[in-house]
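Model the whole thing, not chain by chain.
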Amino acid sequence: MSQQTHLNDVDLDAIVALVGAVEEDGDNGNTVWQADVHWERGFRTRAAVREFAIESDEPSGLGGTDSAPNPVEQVAAALGNCLAVGYVAAFTKRGIAVRELDIAVSGQLDLRPFLGLAPGHAGYSKIEVDVRIDSDADDATLAEVHRDVVATSPVGHSLTNPVELDIRLADR
Amino acid sequence: MSQQTHLNDVDLDAIVALVGAVEEDGDNGNTVWQADVHWERGFRTRAAVREFAIESDEPSGLGGTDSAPNPVEQVAAALGNCLAVGYVAAFTKRGIAVRELDIAVSGQLDLRPFLGLAPGHAGYSKIEVDVRIDSDADDATLAEVHRDVVATSPVGHSLTNPVELDIRLADR
């Protein structure tokens, strides 16, 4: 039993309990996620997320000191990390062991809008992702898992759909 | 001179050089950013970004082991980190010293699409950001800086505009 519910080291019991709670009351699915960013110096910042920290800087070519991944790299990492959760969850639900999973994320970004040299979209224009999975799944299951993951990825959907941003400058 | 070009510890010379290179040839503004995600166990992954790593996990309530920020928290952090770069760059360009800068990011996300309990948008529905800056800028300058930053944020625009995602499952 404990073997079964920890396939791929995923705590399936916790997910089943969460699904039950959200089925019982949809409000239990409404979550809030936070990060508190503190400026250190130059382009170096530190985001506090619960008890964790995500450090950030820019490469020297962009005026930073190259001491940490930059914010757009953090987005690329978040996308790959999110898709990995999706694949592992989808395999685990189907009782399939994952042996290896690697995800390469590569995004294209035109710096001109950020630099004020052109108007328009300053973000990623396109992000390409190559997923490599080693498991016992047959091709049909693999294709089904892939469709499910793409259809339900929180970070993926935050990028493919417009998210409402409300950025307020508080009184000093 | 070195004082002037390192206001707020930003290497303004590097940015001026980059702007010059991109003005000379727009292709110099076309950048690619990458992350290589490796699955460790459960929902725990490690994204390699150049020589850096971004670790990721899910809270125990979501079936993880709560050892690192989760992917949607990484997006919240990336947004705050990106906006901080924008504000510091905008102030530095105007010759204004920044004393303190803190950015609180809070995003709302309905877990039901991710859990397969409802169709639709699995990502953030809305992200609220509170920026607190201590500087010598007057109110008009502050408002202008704010407009510029919101209009040119790479991570902000990656969220507010639909980004094309191409997620490919490679042969094992």
